[in-house]
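Notebook p. 47: complex prediction with DQA.
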Amino acid sequence: KSILLINGPNLNLLGTREPGVYGSTTLPQVVESAQKQCSSLSIRLETIQSNHEGVLIDRIHEARGDIDAVVVNPGALTHTSVALRDALLGVEIPFVEVHISNVHKREPFRHHSYLSDKAEAVICGLGVYGYEAAIAFAARSIKPKER
Ligand code: DQA
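Predicted complex, structure tokens below:
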């Protein structure tokens, strides 16, 4: 099985960015724990962080036929990007949406997601533990595609 972990705009600043909202764990730490978790589950993990919508879309296209599940924290693209939604739907890879913060406790513009109605699951407000929970869920519930 294989999982692609996607982090969108500004998540490279994790650990230093609004620590009251997002905590003090850095993105490299998140990725390292995810790698350990996946290797213990015999899952291949690929990761990408980009501040550029098009780069994320290209990576999603490349995942077609190669990746069984996507775990995605789209950052602010959650609330703006029809293109990211279309990319995920276009490649037909099931995905879990993760937000570190509880977006529903925040500004109203964060309450709407262009992805949630198509996600297998949506996690928010668990802090960086949300990534671990999403990977555990993806690992047990998502079947590898026959290819
Ligand atoms: C976020 C929530 C988004 O509203 C915000 O734009 C982010 C991070 C989260 O992980 O809580 O960049 O996706």
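Notes: Residues 1 and 42 are 8 Å apart (CA to CA). Residues 2-111+120-141 form a domain with the Rossmann fold fold (CATH 3.40.50.9100).
Next step: compare against the earlier run before touching the bench.
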